[in-house]
Amino acid sequence: MTIKKVRTAILISGRGSNMQALADAARDDDYPAEIVLIASNRPDAAGLEWAKARGLPTLAIDHKNYANREAFEEALQNALASAKTELVALAGFMRLMTADFVEHWRDRMINIHPSLLPSFKGLHTHERALDAGVKIAGCTVHFVRPKMDEGPIIGQAAVPVLSGDDPDTLAARVLAAEHRLYPASLKLVTGGQVRVEGEKTVIFHNSNVSSPIYSPGL
Ligand code: GRF
Hints:
Elements: E1 6-12, H1 17-25, E2 33-40, H2 46-53, E3 58-60, H3 69-82, E4 87-90, H4 99-104, E5 109-113, H5 125-132, E6 136-143, E7 153-160, H6 167-190, E8 194-197, E9 200-203
Parallel strand pairs: 1-2, 1-4, 2-3, 4-5
Antiparallel strand pairs: 5-6, 6-7, 8-9
Bound molecules: 5-O-phosphono-beta-D-ribofuranosylamine.
C-alpha cells in the first residue's frame, strides 16, 4: 500500500547533519514525509553538496543578494511554493525570520534546537549548559513561533552531562540524539500523530517508556 506523503522542505545554513538524518529516514517507503527541497541561504553550505550527490532537489538562495529580509523571504516563499511544500523543517537554518513568514507556516514549520527548551534558547547552548552546571542536557523539536526557540514542543531527548565534558564533547553527545529525535518527530508530525492545543502538543503515540535518566548514573 502506498501512503500519502507530506511534501517537506528542509532549510539549512551549514553542515546539514540533521538534514541528512531526515533525508535518510525519508528514503523508507513507509515514512510519511517526502523531501521535496533542500534550500540554503548560504551557497557554500556543506549540506548542499551532500544533498546534490544524493540526487535531492537543492537550491541556494543567498540572503546577501537581497536588499532586506522581506525580499529574501519572498524568494524563499516562491521556492517553497514551486516545490508544493506542505511542511518546512529547519535544520541548522541560521536566519531570523519575520513574524509574517513564521505565521504563514504556523504549525507547518518545525525546528530542532540543541537544548532542553525552554532552557538555553539562542546560541552557545552547550557552553551555557556547562556554565550552569546542569547534569542533563539534550535537544528539542518544536513548532516555530515568531520568538526564537519558542513554540509547542513535539519531542525532546536527554543526555547526561559527564564530568570532564567541554562544549565539543557535549555537543557531539547531543547531536547524536538530535539525529534520532528529528526523524522520529518529523514522522509523528507528518503521520498525523501530533495535534497543537494552545501552545502545547498532544501526541498520539503508544510509548510505554517511563524509565528516568539519572545523571550521575546510579
Ligand atoms: C544542530 O545542533 C541543531 O540543533 C542546531 O544547529 C545545529 C545544526 O547542525 N539548530 P547540522 O547542520 O544539522 O549538522
